[in-house]
Amino acid sequence: MKRVLSYRIIFVFLFSLLTSGYLAAQLSAPGSVFTDETNYPVFQEVDSIYIFCSEENLNLGELLVETSLTETKSFNWEKYNSATAVFETFFSEDSESGFSTISDLEDGCYRVTITKGDTVEIYRAWILNDWFNATGRVIESNCDYFKLQSSFNSALLVYYDLNDNSEIEVYKDIQVEWKEGNSVIARVNSPQIFEPPTSDTEYEFNVFDRFGCGTQTNVTYISVVTKAQFEIEADFNSGDQQGEAPMEVTFTNTSENGSPGEYEWYFFRDIEEIKLESENTTEPIDSFMFIAYDDDLIHTYERTGTYMVKLVSKKISDYHILGDSIYEGTCTDTIYLEDFIVTDTSYFDVPNVFTPNNDGTNDNFVVKFWSMEDAKVTIVNRWGKHVHFWEKTNVRRFEGTWMESVWDGKIGGRYASPGVYYYVAEGKGRDGKNRWAHGFFHLFRGKD
Question: pTM value?
Answer without folding.
Answer: 0.74
